[in-house]
Amino acid sequence: MAAENLPTASEYIVHHLTNWTAHPPKGIIDFSIFNIDSLFWSSLLGIVLCFFLWRAAKKMTSGVPGRFQAAVEILVEWVDNEAKGVIHNAESRKLASPLALVLFLWILLMNGMDLLPVDLLPQIWAHIVGAAGGDVHHAYMRVVPTADLPGMFALSISVLLLCFFYSIKIKGLGGWAHELVTKPFGTSRNPLLALLMGVINFAMQMIEFAAKTVSHAMRLFGNMYAGELVFALIALMGGAMGASLGGVLLPIGQIIAGTAWAIFHLLIITIQAFIFMILALVYIGQAHDSH
241 is in which domain, residue-wise? Predict the structure, then answer.
């Protein structure tokens, strides 16, 4: 390919941070509900996770466990202990604990896609599109679902809906409705003042729900988006091949920097999966509490 046909650094970054959607992309952060690449990779990783958990359950034995069974048992026990610390209702933990386990492992797998070489899957997809006669320059493919903001909002909103469900289940619809208009500032015996306090309390409750949901999604998205961007910037170093000293040393620097960032990123992807899981448990636990 001629040098003039090669993308600039900014074009390369924008291409890698643009989702494959059913309509022409509207920018790096596209609020399209259907980002096809994110839906595909998150669904595929979810299926892979369900398969391995199913295999673990099928091979479960009361005898001496194998390494895989032992690893799954350790994870299950760890997540259950975390759930017990914030959700004191044993009946609720029958759903919350498995949900937390799936959230942690699923997000960990989705985060882990960031460790693949930046151009590996996008280039494979571009070759497929080119072979089919499509426009290679617009063959977008982002493989890190957790760096997709709409997808993370879908997860955080699902947790919010679970909080609503448990609030109604534990307190009753009337009890929860009463809490919405009397907490956190209480009420008054004066009818007009009670009405005013009710409006203020309800507004504060809605702000709290919105803040928790937005921060829940944005925390995971922001960290993974930043990690994806750093990997793309490091990948640019490998394109600096040339006769100059810098052109020789930059690809070597790419290998060193990429390896160092990947090792550090292992910690980030694990912590972010853990934080999302813990916050989901905390929010569900708060739905059980009377304020």
Answer: 3-288
